[in-house]
Write a structure and sequence with these properties.
two-stranded antiparallel ribbon, alpha+beta, about 800 residues, 12 strands, FPL domain-containing protein, 6 domains, CLEC16A/TT9, ARM-type_fold, CLEC16A/TT9_N
């Protein structure tokens, strides 16, 4: 029994430390009677040791003299009480974290007591105890340096044979509790950053190095989980939250891989890279890129996203070069043998290739002859270097181009994202990009200029000669990696293409992009991504756009003009010019940006992005925005590829109104947006009745008025003392009102009422963005009015008034659009 009256009066004194140590050494058994006093003793000792470390070195001298670390281990061994183990781990964590003296840390680490605590068999069925234990290990790792790390290892024959701090910690690397996983990662990074040569050898040697393969295998499971969430979103839109969680988890893992590599230990970088290639990329992601294979474990869109994510975050030359090199390999080499069909064909691509014949003339320019099975085949695959009788022989690079031309939206966007990510990768040698056909033209000129300066070119014309580039450029880095893979994996990685021709591959990429811009079954966002890539390849509108490409662009532009004029007659005609000006500016900014504006993870939500199929105003607004974006992109590309400079569109408010609407003039309405309470003349108004609430019918004067690109349906209340004058009570947009007289009641006029503006400043998709609630979209319900007039003629007059004003409104919008875009 300990008696508190025997304790020294000064709590922070050496006498208090002696007293607490003496009480600790007297303990022979730990039970319910003394556990609380023992817990208090452990707390006091840690507090006193930390105090002494900062104020009086005699405290720690006493701590060493009495071998209190040994007493801690002794107490742990004789205790069967969970609270003692918890307190001891907390005591050690606090001491280690707060001791500033290197001498003190060196002492604590310099005997086997610390390793005894690390290796002790705690009962981790108690989750709180495990958390304290991991915090204890992390505290130790925070004090590691070149001098202290050697104190925690066991060696034999100058080789480390045991490192409990590391091996015990990584046992919990995949624990279900996120905070434990984070702590283990922080601990491992602290160890890697010490950069001790012998420790690194131990970590990189089997079986300890199995940690890295387990990391990648665990990451692979997360990739499969992500793909499952992507699949589920086609059935349940609420799965978007699942995708976001999976994406965050995947990116966290990749950033950890990146941090491990950034620690500067080459062997660890090699382990991460090799395991990612052999356990994830080669067996799972690359096989999934082949066209529509039912047995793929993940979808092509998920694989494309994951490859982009890996390249963006895990930035190593070897990994980026390996991924780029595999794109030259035939897709058949990534198909499990059990899936290969007897005739060697594994894909429906066979049928696509039957109608395509490519040839190269003797001058190196590409001559294309298309043979289509029917007129609708103009967008058939046009990205094969030679005619293939078996589509399984095409390279993965060509599969990406196929997806751009013929794939669904996720595949097209994912392929564009992957090519853009490779193009921006600082880890890739320029010869790799050149071989893929995506080396930016400015870098080509820089390379050729350098060659000319050092005397490798004999003629000034060679500087800008694509012919020289195709004939003399040798992809040294690419060849080296192809040879490396062939030596390491055998014929598995032999190149699937007859040769690497940068000029020819570049033309294939350009051709695929041009055909992408003609597609009508993908969204504007996909086309804008293609526009950005094209501007990187041809920033100065050079002569690689041939007459066939220009013809395709002009035809697609003509189609977009027709679509534009159709939208002018649509529900949102009154804001069309505003949207057009805004999207012109946005498109110009997007394709001239230094990097794509859309994150690759948009690939995962493309299925969810599909347009609303109903006829609501929200759906119509979304379709209009997308069509205008497509029109703007095609128009800008046409200007750019024709050698012109993209102009800035003047805002529509600066354009002169082409006519003054007599009805608006008679009403005395000189504002674009009429507000409730505004006075108005009612000479042309038609009296009517409407009930906005059940049983509450109200009398109004009905007017339909357009002014410039603004049009409104107005319900006004006439003054009792001033006939033909009144004030506006309700105003609704004229666009989309679709007047219709009731079939059974000829005095009734039905009108559709839409919101006055598109939501969220012209970006309707923000209302369907990932993880957002549906509350906002519920606000955008279509309104419907039924107006009752006093006789049939009044009803017909009101309908005629609405139709006339809609016609005037559309005519004004069309006139302004033609003037704005020089479409006269």
């Amino acid at each position: 029994m300990w008696f508190s009256f025997l304790r020294p009066k000064d709590r922070l004194s050496l006498e208090e430390l002696r007293y607490q140590t003496d009480q600790l050494q007297k303990v022979q058994v730990v039970d319910e009677n003394n556990k609380d006093d023992l817990i208090e003793a452990l707390r006091s000792i840690s507090e006193l040791v930390i105090y002494g470390d900062q104020h009086d070195p005699n405290f720690f001298e006493f701590f060493m003299e009495k071998q209190i670390m040994g007493e801690f281990v002794h107490i742990l061994k004789i205790s069967r009480t969970m609270s003692i183990a918890l307190q001891l781990l907390q005591t050690m964590s606090i001491m280690i974290q707060n001791l500033a003296s290197e001498h003190a840390i060196y002492y604590i680490f310099s005997n086997e007591h610390i390793n005894s605590l690390i290796s002790y068999s705690f009962d981790f069925r108690n989750e709180e105890l495990l958390s304290y234990y991991i915090s204890f290990l992390r505290a130790i790792s925070g004090k590691l340096n070149n001098n202290t790390i050697s104190l925690l290892v066991k060696t034999a024959n100058d080789e480390i044979i045991s490192f409990p701090l590391y091996t015990e910690a990584i046992r919990y690397a995949f624990h279900q509790e996120n905070m434990i996983r984070i702590a283990v990662r922080a601990l491992t990074l602290n160890i890697y950053h010490v950069a001790d040569e012998n420790v690194n050898k131990f970590i990189s040697r089997s079986p300890v190095s199995d940690y890295f393969s387990k990391l990648v295998l665990n990451f692979t499971k997360k990739c499969l989980n992500l793909d499952q969430c992507v699949t589920e979103i086609t059935k349940n839109s609420d799965s978007s939250a699942c995708i976001l969680t999976a994406v965050d988890d995947i990116e966290d893992n990749l950033y950890y891989f990146s941090d491990v590599i950034s620690a500067g230990v080459p062997e660890l970088g090699r382990l991460i890279t090799d395991n990612m290639l052999e356990l994830l990329i080669f067996p799972l992601l690359l096989p999934s890129l082949k066209e529509h294979h039912d047995d793929s474990k993940v979808s092509a869109s998920s694989s494309l996203y994951l490859l982009c994510c890996i390249l963006r975050i895990v930035k190593t030359k070897d990994l980026a070069s390996s991924i780029a090199t595999t794109l030259f390999c035939s897709q058949e080499y990534f198909i499990p043998k059990s899936e290969v069909k007897p005739n060697g064909c594994t894909s429906n691509l066979d049928a696509e290739y039957k109608y395509i014949d490519y040839s190269i003339d003797i001058n190196g320019s590409k001559k294309t002859e298309m043979k289509y099975s029917n007129s609708s085949s103009i967008l058939s695959l046009a990205c094969s270097s030679i005619q293939r009788c078996k589509a399984s022989q095409i390279s993965l690079r060509e599969v990406l181009l196929y997806y751009i031309v013929c794939g669904n939206e996720p595949e097209a966007f994912g392929s564009l994202s992957l090519l853009s990510t490779l193009l921006q990768s600082k880890e890739l040698d320029e010869s790799m990009l050149d071989g893929l056909g995506i080396l930016p033209r400015r870098k080509q000129h820089k390379k050729l200029l350098l060659q000319a300066l050092v005397g490798e070119g004999s003629d000034e014309e060679q500087l800008f000669s694509s012919e020289k580039n195709s004939k003399e450029c040798v992809n040294t880095e690419l060849d080296r990696y192809l040879q490396k893979f062939k030596a390491q994996y055998g014929s598995l990685f032999c190149c699937g293409e007859s040769g690497v021709s940068p000029h020819y591959h570049r033309h294939q990429v350009l051709d695929a992009l041009m055909r992408l811009f003609c597609r009508s079954n993908v969204s504007a966002e996909v086309l804008w991504a293609g526009g950005w890539l094209l501007r990187q390849l041809l920033p100065h509108s050079e002569a690689q756009i041939n007459s066939n490409h220009m013809k395709l662009l002009k035809e697609s532009h003509e189609d977009s003009i027709s679509v534009l004029f159709d939208e002018i007659k649509g529900s949102w005609c009154d804001i069309l010019i505003t949207v057009l000006v805004e999207e012109w500016k946005n498109c110009k900014k997007a394709i001239e940006a230094s990097s794509p504006q859309k994150d690759p993870n948009r690939t995962l939500f493309s299925y969810h992005r599909c347009f609303i199929k109903d006829e609501s105003f929200l759906a119509a607004g979304e379709r209009m925005c997308d069509k205008l974006k497509i029109f703007v992109l095609r128009y800008q590309l046409l200007i750019f590829t024709s050698g012109g400079t993209l102009p800035d569109l003047a805002h529509h408010s600066s354009l002169v109104i082409s006519h003054i609407n007599p009805r608006a003039k008679v009403a005395g309405l000189d504002v674009l947006v009429p507000k409730s309470g505004t006075e108005i003349k009612l000479d042309d108004a038609v009296p009517c009745k409407i009930a906005f609430e059940r049983g509450k019918e109200r009398h109004f004067s009905f007017l339909a008025i357009s002014r410039g690109t603004s049009g409104w349906i107005i319900l006004a209340e006439e003054y009792t003392d001033r006939p033909k004058y009144g004030i506006i009570r309700v105003a609704a947009p004229l666009g989309g009102s679709s007047p219709k007289i009731d079939d059974k009641h000829p005095k009734w006029l039905h009108l559709r009422i839409r919101p006055s503006t598109l939501p969220s400043t012209l970006d309707i998709r923000k209302f369907q963005s990932i993880g957002k609630t549906k509350a906002k979209t519920k606000m955008l319900v279509d309104g419907r009015w039924t107006l009752a007039f006093y006789d049939d003629e009044m009803c017909k007059s009101a309908e005629s008034m609405v139709l006339q004003e809609i016609h005037l409104l559309c005519s004004e919008v069309e006139a302004r659009a033609r003037s704005l875009l020089n479409l006269n």
